[in-house]
Amino acid sequence: MPSHLVAALYHFADLPDYLALREPLRAVCAQAGVKGTLLLASEGINGTIAGSREGIDAVLGYLRADARLAGLEHKESFADTPPFARLKIKLKREIVTMGKPGVDPRKLVGTYVEPAQWNALLDQPDVLLIDTRNDYEVKVGTFRNAVSPQTQSFREFPAFVDQQLSAQKQRPIAMFCTGGIRCEKATAYLREQGFENVYHLRGGILKYLEQIPPEQSRWQGECYVFDERVALGHGLTPGRTRLCEACGQPLSLAEQSAPDYAPGLHCPHCVNTQSEARRAALRMRRSQRES
């Protein structure tokens, strides 16, 4: 059994004192031996942490002891090696950055659909399935027949809605993301814009891959995650996608086998775009590792 428990968590809450929450939370995480990244904002908390079962339980218990975070949801998976090198607790304007401060999922949001009912929703006629994630995440895997907004940042999502969906406000729209948080804001934004039939996958792709057996799954590929595992498959087992250390692009098995891929130096995405200074720095880093 892998020894590192990974917990992806988020909760929208009114936290006007979020600046003062950082250092006490940092101390609790440090004492529990937990690492990862947590975002704090006036609208709530978001992030992924890893550690022992006891350590993760201690941090989650500390957070939920605050009545404003009592309903905090988390999803669990496992890693054979530590997925984070350090602990980072960042103060942000938003816990998922859309750039629309007035959008509040606590006031207006789409209809949640449990993973067990997701396939049935997708089978309904005229449902438009939208992947709310960014293009590099979609590349690693997505649901069959899903539309990608082709965004590089979630800030671009409202423009996609305004430009490409505004004429389809009566159409049933189903949306999904990694763990559920982006869909909270995405569905809230659509509802504010007058869309009537908006649905989103509760718990996101991670919960779907955890609960739905491969033979019943509509998922194709792997799910990109923001830690050193890079991607997960069905049952939340580590995938085979790797990151290019030079440019950060996720690489499929085919790209890892390409002539232009040299671990730590370049991949097919960046081999022709690096400056000589960048190439020299990467060669130096690689030689230091091998020495």
From TrEMBL:
What processes in GO biological process is this protein linked to?
Answer: tRNA modification
Q: What are the residue boundaries of the Rhodanese domain, all occurrences included?
A: 123-217
Q: Which reaction does it catalyse?
A: uridine(34) in tRNA + AH2 + O2 = 5-hydroxyuridine(34) in tRNA + A + H2O
Write down the Gene3D superfamilies for this protein, in alphabetical order: 3.30.70.100, Rhodanese-like domain
What is a GO molecular function of this protein? Answer: oxidoreductase activity, acting on paired donors, with incorporation or reduction of molecular oxygen
What's the top EC group for this one?
oxidoreductase
Pfam families, alphabetized: Rhodanese, UPF0176_N
* Keywords recorded for this protein, A-Z: Oxidoreductase, tRNA processing
Q: Does the keyword NADP apply?
A: no
Coiled coil regions, renumbered to chain: none
Checking PROSITE patterns in the record gives: RHODANESE_3 (PS50206)
In the UniProt record, does the keyword Cell membrane occur?
no
Q: What is its EC number?
A: 1.14.-.-
Protein family (similarity comment): Belongs to the TrhO family.
User: Which PANTHER family does its entry note?
Assistant: RHODANESE-LIKE DOMAIN-CONTAINING PROTEIN 7-RELATED (PTHR43268:SF3), THIOSULFATE SULFURTRANSFERASE/RHODANESE-LIKE DOMAIN-CONTAINING PROTEIN 2 (PTHR43268)
The protein's job, in short, is:
Catalyzes oxygen-dependent 5-hydroxyuridine (ho5U) modification at position 34 in tRNAs.
Q: What is this protein called?
A: tRNA uridine(34) hydroxylase
Q: Which organism is it from?
A: Solimonas aquatica
The primary gene name is trhO
